From TrEMBL:
Residues 11-118 form the SnoaL-like domain. InterPro entries: NTF2-like_dom_sf, SnoaL-like. Pfam families: SnoaL_2. This is Nuclear transport factor 2 family protein.
């Protein structure tokens, strides 16, 4: 499979998130960007645009004291505008003090070299 330039976009986006660089996150979001967090999570919902993503991330880190959030594998498809990232998450639920571990698959969709959509699927719900 040829090199996919969207891999670099994904890496820049996740690096900016972990560094707290909201301006880069916003710049990498396509018009109409949406993050879809599944029901059953304390941070469930759809978050629009770079501002919405950063609002989600603030809720996420308020809910979880993150010890590890790491991409462990990347799966490419025949369509370069779709990539799946497999991640490992280890955290403590702040409200209960209980440990939480999950793997998750995030389906990323790209448009014109920017992130258009992220749809995470958690193995374990909180």
């Amino acid at each position: 499979m040829p090199d996919n330039p969207n891999l670099a976009v994904l890496e820049r986006f996740t690096g900016a998130v972990m560094a707290g660089d909201g301006e880069t996150v916003k710049a990498l979001c396509a018009p109409g960007f949406a993050l879809h967090e599944g029901s059953g999570l304390s941070f469930a919902g759809t978050y629009g645009g770079g501002e919405g993503f950063m609002a989600f991330f603030a809720i996420f880190v308020d809910a979880l004291a993150i010890e590890r959030l790491e991409t462990v594998r990347i799966y490419q498809t025949d369509d370069p505008d779709f990539i799946v990232a497999e991640m490992e998450l280890r955290a403590t639920v702040r409200e209960t003090g209980k440990p939480f571990e999950s793997s998750l698959l995030e389906r990323w969709r790209f448009q014109d070299g920017k992130v258009a959509e992220i749809k995470p699927h958690y193995f374990n719900a909180m």
